Amino acid sequence: MTEIINFIAENRQMIYIILLSIFVGVEVIGNVPTVLHTPLMSGANAIHGVVIVGAIIVMLNCEIENTSGLILGFLAVILGTLNVVGGFVVTDRMLEMFKKKK
Q1: Would you kindly state where each structural domain of the chain is located, as residue ranges?
Q2: Rounded CA separation 44/32 (Å)
Q3: CA-to-CA distance for 18 and 27, rounded, in angstroms?
Q4: Of 54, 61, 46, which is closest to residue 75 (Cα–Cα)?
Q5: How many whole angstroms separate alpha carbon 15 and alpha carbon 7?
Q6: Are 73 and 59 in contact (CB under 8 A)?
Q7: Rounded to an integer, what distance in angstroms lies between the CA atom of residue 84 and that of residue 76?
Q8: How many CB atoms sit inside 10 A of residue 48's CB?
Q9: C-alpha distances in Å from residue 28, one per residue of 35, 36, 40, 47, 73
Q10: What pTM does this model have?
Q11: Which end of the chain is least crowded, N or C, by CB within 10 Å?
Q12: Which range scores top for mean pLDDT: 40-44, 68-72, 83-87, 96-100?
């Protein structure tokens, strides 16, 4: 229990920043009009390319004996790729709705 209290005391500013960012994120996303949700989410999904690059870097620096690190890195690459591709698919479908019909 004292370890938890010491951790909180040592990292108080970081905890405040995380809590404030959660509240700001909820307020910002909660006030977005419905029409803008799809383009914003597709852009946010494209940011997951950073997750993919980070996971690849972690896997490159991971030792061969560290199988849990390699497995988690591989899962991060797969799930990040699925999220990026899914975001672009949703954006493409959304843009198809606005094209004029022939």
Answers
A1: 1-31, 33-102
A2: 14
A3: 14
A4: 54
A5: 10
A6: yes
A7: 12
A8: 20
A9: 15, 12, 12, 18, 31
A10: 0.57
A11: C
A12: 68-72
What digits encode the pLDDT tens for the residues 8-59? 899 999 999 999 999 998 888 788 776 776 667 666 776 778 888 888 998 8
| Cβ count within 10 A of residue 32 | 11
Residue 17's Cβ-count burial label (10 Å; 0-12, 13-18, 19+) is exposed
